[in-house]
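Let's study my pick:
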Amino acid sequence: MADNQLKATITEAMKVAMKAKDKERLSAIRLILADFKRIEVDERIEVDDARGLAVLDKMCKQRRDSIKQYTDAGRQELADKEQAEIDVIQSFLPQPLTDTELDTLIDQAVAESGADSIKGMGQVMAILKPQIQGRADVGQVSQRVKARLQ
């Protein structure tokens, strides 16, 4: 049995949102569950917590990109809608890492991989990625690792 506590939590939140008639939250939750279902059908697997966090992380990143495009195009109402979806998605993600925690993880990963130049960045990121999934923006962490290795 796959570890899918995350999916159960999201499904329960959908029921609560339906009863509360919270249309915006319900809509965002349905988007999450639709993405999970798409993966389950396409790949014939059950989405476990690790994969679920990766999906939620990706959904947040897509919405951040959309917000930037909408803001650049002067469509604030669409950017606000995307931000509301991010807020709902993030409510299912673990607590974000602090800068101090992130620096500690980066230091440990650099030491573990033995990386001493930018060439070792892939190894460091491979160690970090499972630890930061859903708790930090991978792009920002990547920049911090690059700065650390230069």
Notes: The CA atoms of residues 7 and 52 lie 7 Å apart. The chain has a mean pLDDT of 89. The two ends are 44 Å apart (CA to CA).
